[in-house]
Amino acid sequence: MNTKKPSKQAGSIFANVALGVAAVGSVAAVTADWTAQQAALAVQRQQGQLFTVLNDAVGNYMTLLYTQLTEQTADGTDKIPGTCATLPYRVGESVATHSDILAKKCTLTVPLSSGATGTTTSTTSTTSTTSTTTSTATYTLDNALQPTLSDLKALGILDRNIAETPAMPTELLVSGPNSAGAKSTALAPNGYAISIEPKCVGLGSAASTCNKTNKALISSVINIQPFAQSQYTQNFTTLLWAAGPDAAMSGPADASNIGAQENRINPTGEFRSVQAGWTRNNPITQEWSVTAGTTTTSYTRGADSLMLMRNGYDSAYWQLARRDGSTPPTANWDFNGKDLTNVGKLTAASAEIQNLKVTGDQAIEGNQTVKGNQSIQGDQSVGKNLTVQGTSTFTGLLSAMGGLLVQGATDLRGALTVAGPAIFKDDVSVSKNLAVDGNTALKGTLTGTSATFTGALTAGSLAIGHTQITQDGTLLGGKLGWGVTPGTTCSSNYALAQSTDGKVQICRGGGWTALITSENIVLTAPGAGQACAPEGAPGRLPDGTLVVCKNSKWESTAQGTALEGRACTTEGALATMLTAPDHPNMILLGCRNGLWSQNVFNKPKLAAVTQGGTCPMDDELAMDRRGYPSLLICKSGTWQTLGTQLLANMQKGTSCTLEGVLASDIDHTGLLVCKGGVWAKTTDPVELGSACSPNGREVTLGSGDKLYCVAGAWSDMPPYFAIRRFADSMLVHLNRPIKFNGAIYGVYNEPDLGGQSTSQTYSNISYWMVAGNAVSSYTGRRGSTWWLGDWSGTRTVEIATAQELYAIHDAFGGRPPAWNFPFQDGAEVWTANRRDECDNGCGMGWSGGGGNWWDHITVDIWTNWTFHRYNTEKRPIILKMSINP
């Protein structure tokens, strides 16, 4: 017989029991998880229903108070400013409450219905026989465009049992302003924000024409603090569907490693509707920044996990007809026999009207056929044909929108105004004056007894009597026909005409004579002293000598030789004068004011030329164009100086432009020379260490080396070196540099901060030098390249060590003269030495201070004192720069 060992049987029983317990536990865990998930979804449904209740209350609020909320003091000017709807909430730090809210421009006092609570005002009126007392309950809203849940409850619009806080869990991230309205980082309430925005819709939406007839209200209900997410609320679909098509969520939230705004699912954090597909900007924003390398970018977007319920003009019930006309009907309307009154303009494709009465203007753009009598008391406009078989009488305005054809005579007894072109195909007779304000173009002939033109007259051809002015020239006709006969009589003295042979005639002495007797304006003169005409005419004698008609006799303008200053008789005559009996040159003289003078022509100014430039005529003089009162002379085709030029009354130290020019000192103490762009004493030495002025001068020696005028003495160091920091490429100065032991030392200075030195903490200066902050590694044992070079990139800049600063002190007997000016934040300067490298003060002993072993020491180079300072303290810096090889 087979038997089972008890031990094995027992083990099998325990195993089965264990499996059963595990199965029960697994079922329990699944059940608990499902239960938690269903509970979370139930809370979402509850929250969605709460939003709809709040949204309905806000809709009733806007309906009841529409007149007060849209009231205007003038068209385009709201009594309650639209800025009252501005929400101040932000993630991190809020913005300040809008100034209009703080100024109490948003308040509104309304009467309360029965059952609501508020302030009661009693009014008593008394007559001779009765006394009546009435009580009116009112309620004042602090901000009519941002009503609170408490306001809605007080007005009786919202159930008082509705909780002020959301049903769903939230994350407290959003801040609101403090009690005074200033921006703050204090958390905002965990509740709801309501914002009502007035909006101009329909026709006339410009601010200047927006009035209460086309004013709509748009509301938003938003949870102030974002809804918290968990494993059961990773999305808010149940919440949105429970709230309906007027609900939208911001976000969704992105993964924490997504920084750049453009990479986010919802880059701007706007509200997006799942059911209706609409969007709206998120007024509750958050800011963050993303650093990539050395670039930091800041972003602003709407906060995630917020829900918005909209109401008013753009809500889900927009399909209902609006009074602003922005939602046209989609089917026929039946007014059930009711009147339609106060219509501004009625436009229809066709109309069937049993009785039509028009008391104002009537405009008909198509054909009109009137079979019966028609009485029009106002204006009528017909756009097409109008057939009238009888007589029509218009006592108002007749406007033809198309053509107007009149086959018979038309008698217009009032004014005729033509806005477009007017074409007259036949004669036009004007019994009185014709006034033309604009241009008049005549393609035919203009005939009249007289014409006056105050402006320009433009014509292709203009005929006046027998004179015709054309585009090609003027034809001068005679009185009796085209052209006059020379020698015949004329009546208008000095009138011009044209003879039949084409020559110009002038009326002189009652007869037509040739204006010019030959083709040359210079007349042929038979001889000097002979009769001539007209007075002042030029002539030429047979030998070629020029003559002039003077006192009706020809006088010669050439007088041979004459002497300057002697009397002459013919004004304008010319003569020559020999400068000496044996000199071949002659000087031209002219008869002016009865005397022979060399002033024949106007003498021009001397030209301004450039030394070294080409010139046309030797010995000609000109002015130096560089502005100095000096002359240049033309020699061998080149402008040259007349000799050594000495300018007068120049001042030492002022600027000059002509290098090497000499001048007298304004103080008459000696000569000055233009050197290096500045007037300097000719006796002043230009050598290293000698005196100079003014500061800032720069000269180049014959060796090619440059010297700089610094602190009144010539130096081989400029006032500063411009260098760029490694970490941020900021331009800084190595100020007041000196040479010492084969290197250059100078004072660190940031020009934008002003002053002659700029102090820094050691932590900061080391960061700027190496783009890091591992201060403990930067000691007196420096590397070869720490931060940056100058413009050429060939120099190394380092913080000076204590030993180097002590050596400078010993060499100069204290601080070098170039550094004798106040340092920012005291006379102690940072060194590259840590505390653990200078247990004995680097050979000088300690003078005080405190810090850790890794903090650096400072040195007062006035006294060689050594101090131990914390790296976070601010002190001036002396930098060392290598010299170019």
Layout of helices and strands:
Layout: H1 6-64, H2 66-69, E1 72-74, E2 77-78, E3 90-91, H3 99-102, E4 108-111, E5 119-126, E6 131-141, H4 149-154, E7 174-175, E8 192-200, E9 215-223, H5 237-243, E10 247-250, E11 271-272, E12 279-280, E13 285-292, E14 295-302, E15 307-312, E16 362-364, E17 380-382, E18 398-400, E19 461-464, E20 467-470, E21 473-475, E22 496-498, E23 504-508, E24 511-514, E25 523-524, E26 538-540, E27 546-550, E28 553-556, E29 558-561, E30 574-578, E31 586-592, E32 595-597, E33 608-609, E34 621-624, E35 631-635, E36 638-641, E37 646-650, E38 662-665, E39 671-675, E40 678-681, E41 698-700, E42 706-710, E43 713-715, E44 720-724, E45 731-740, E46 743-749, E47 760-761, H6 762-770, E48 797-799, H7 802-812, E49 828-834, E50 856-860, E51 865-868, E52 874-875, E53 878-882
Helix pairs in contact: 1-5
Give a short synopsis of this structure.
By secondary structure, the protein is of the alpha+beta class. It is built from seven helices and 53 strands.
Description:
The strands form 16 sheets. Strands 8-9-15-10-11-12 form a six-stranded antiparallel β-sheet, with helices on one face. Strands 44-45-46-53-48 form a five-stranded antiparallel β-sheet, with no helix packed on it. Residues 1-10, 121-133, 580-585 and 771-794 have low confidence and may be disordered. A hairpin with a 2-residue loop joins strand 23 (504-508) and strand 24. It has 885 residues and is of the alpha+beta class. The chain is flat and about 145 Å long. Helix 1 (6-64) packs parallel to helix 5 (237-243). It is 11% helix and 27% strand.
